[in-house]
Structure formats: structure tokens, C-alpha cells
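TASK: fixed-backbone design
INPUT:
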């Protein structure tokens, strides 16, 4: 049996079962229900599973939306390195195109008796609408990178993405750009915050209309498709903001193929200051959301929750605009 199955029959949380199996004090009533289930099925604890939360084999679970994305990969990597320094083992789950299987992934993590969980990506805000997942996460420390869960044991580190987009528009306007467009590839909470910042900034200058936002696909091809859409719609544009650096790569490539001098005819700004920003030609001006700092702070937050069993404050990071040659 997994601790999830035991918890379900004992009508308690997986974390309570984990604490019982590892000789951590729990409520007497809960203890009796768990013991009744264990006796019924003649359950013998797995030594490895118990060892995973011992001093010699502490384990942290990381769930990220798409490890192929350089931004998420950098955050997960730094988080892993920080926790290895603290003596923890790491299990990483990559949801990618299988968000509907989130319940299964969390159940698997809990079966390893993880000491805490890190969620990397604002898409995990959707967990708030999933009662089963929220019940599973009760009682175990959870930290969210750029997301928020409505649980007393969940803590957040947020990037002010709205402000980041406002910075971009302000910079472009002050350069004299007046036909500014935003390319988006999703409607996650992070993306919606960027859209809100873009709308408010352009509206402040009397320049906004719904046509200023172009929805496209993810990845390099998505950026190229968006530029072709702008051309097909006969839009006048002299600046483009992309909500991901990888979209900006495709945008720059397509603009160059069409004969534009990027940084002169058209300015392009990306988001997240990933490795892609230094690989484009010209190099990409981008909003630095400081993923390394995010991961380091998240590690400190989660470690503090595990060791000291105390609440920590939600932290918001202000991004900065990193100027290069594309804008």
C-alpha cells in the first residue's frame, strides 16, 4: 500500500501517515485510525521509503511545467543544487503536455515521503480548483515559484510580471516607438499579468487597441508565425514585446528574413533573460525576472519551513530590463 491509500482509508492526510511512519507525534485519534488500517492489511513499512525522510535520505519533490523551457530548467537546476548543498535528494517531475496527470504525479511524490514540494510555474495556480490535489498537499510544506496556492502550508515567491511589461512599454515609448505589439503564447496567470501590464501602459499613452495583442503558438515557430500574422493583417509595427525569450528568437529570425533591421526598423524585447537572449543576432533586450535568485530564495523558504515548521512571508521580486542590441 502507498501512504496515499492508507490515508484515504484512515480518513486523514498522506502527510499524517508519513509522520506516523517516521515516529513523529500526531493526534491520538488520527494515530488510532492509521494503526487500524495498518493492522487490517498487515502493512510493513518500506525501509527505503522511511529512509527517504531520515537524516541520511531527506527528499524534496520538484514539479515543473516544462523542463524543455530554458527558464523553468534554470530555476529547477538552481533549486536542485541549493538543496543538494543542504543534504537533500531531489525528485523532479516534468508535467509538459500532461497537466491532467498532476494528481498522479503528486500522489507518486507523496509515496516517497517527501519533506517538501516546489511547484515551478504559475500554471499550478489551477490546483486551487482541484479539491483532491489540495487535500493531498495539506500538511506538507509547499513553495510556489510565481504561483499561489490557498493553503496555510503553501508559500510563494512571485515575479512582478505586470511591472516587467510596463517597463518594456515605457522604454519603447520613450525611444519614440508608437506601434507596439505584444506576442503571447498562453494565458497562464503569469501571461495574464504581462498582458495587463501591456494594456495599462499602452492605454496610458493612448495607443492601445485589441489588435495590439497577437496570440500564437509556443516556441521559436510561434514567434515567426506571429510576425507573419502582423504582415498579413497589414499592421504597422515598430516594436514587439514577447512574453517569452524563445518567442523573441523566432520573431527576430522572421523579421530578418523579411528584410527588417532589428533594433533599427523594429525593436524586439523578450522576457525572462534566458540563455536564448545572448544567442540571438542581434542580442536580445529582455526583462530579467531573476530565475536564479528566485530558486535560491525558494530553497531558503522551503528549508526553513521543513526545519523550523514555521510560516514564511510571500516574496515579490521586481524584474529589471536588460538592454542589448535588439531594442
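OUTPUT:
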Amino acid at each position: 500500500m502507498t501512504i496515499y491509500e492508507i490515508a484515504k482509508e484512515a480518513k486523514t492526510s498522506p502527510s499524517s501517515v508519513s509522520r506516523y511512519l517516521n515516529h513523529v507525534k500526531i493526534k491520538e485519534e488520527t494515530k488510532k485510525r492509521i494503526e487500524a488500517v495498518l493492522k487490517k492489511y498487515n502493512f510493513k513499512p518500506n525501509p527505503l521509503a522511511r529512509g527517504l525522510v531520515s537524516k541520511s535520505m531527506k527528499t524534496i519533490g520538484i514539479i515543473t511545467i516544462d523542463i524543455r523551457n530554458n527558464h523553468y530548467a534554470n530555476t529547477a537546476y538552481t533549486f536542485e543544487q541549493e538543496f543538494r548543498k543542504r543534504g537533500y535528494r531531489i525528485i523532479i517531475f516534468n508535467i509538459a503536455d500532461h497537466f491532467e496527470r498532476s494528481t498522479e504525479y503528486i500522489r507518486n511524490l507523496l509515496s516517497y515521503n517527501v519533506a517538501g514540494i516546489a511547484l515551478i510555474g504559475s500554471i499550478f495556480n489551477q490546483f486551487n480548483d482541484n479539491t483532491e490535489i489540495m487535500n493531498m498537499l495539506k500538511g506538507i510544506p509547499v513553495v510556489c515559484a510565481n504561483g499561489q496556492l490557498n493553503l496555510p502550508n503553501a508559500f510563494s515567491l512571485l515575479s512582478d510580471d505586470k511591472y516587467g511589461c510596463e517597463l518594456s512599454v515605457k522604454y519603447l515609448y520613450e525611444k519614440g516607438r508608437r506601434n507596439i505589439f505584444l506576442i503571447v503564447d498562453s494565458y497562464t496567470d503569469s501571461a495574464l499579468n504581462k498582458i495587463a501590464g501591456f494594456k495599462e501602459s499602452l492605454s496610458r499613452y493612448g495607443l492601445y487597441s485589441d489588435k495590439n495583442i497577437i496570440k500564437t503558438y509556443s516556441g521559436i515557430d510561434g514567434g515567426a508565425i506571429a510576425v507573419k500574422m502582423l504582415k498579413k493583417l497589414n499592421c504597422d509595427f515598430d516594436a514587439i514585446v514577447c512574453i517569452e525569450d524563445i518567442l523573441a528568437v523566432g520573431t527576430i529570425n522572421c523579421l530578418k528574413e523579411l528584410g527588417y533591421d532589428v533594433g533599427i526598423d523594429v525593436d524586439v524585447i523578450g522576457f525572462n533573460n534566458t540563455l536564448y537572449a545572448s544567442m540571438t543576432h542581434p542580442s536580445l533586450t529582455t526583462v530579467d525576472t531573476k530565475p536564479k535568485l528566485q530558486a535560491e530564495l525558494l530553497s531558503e523558504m522551503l528549508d526553513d519551513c521543513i526545519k523550523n515548521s514555521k510560516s514564511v512571508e510571500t516574496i515579490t521580486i521586481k524584474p529589471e530590463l536588460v538592454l542589448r542590441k535588439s531594442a
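COMMENT: The chain has twelve helices and twelve strands.
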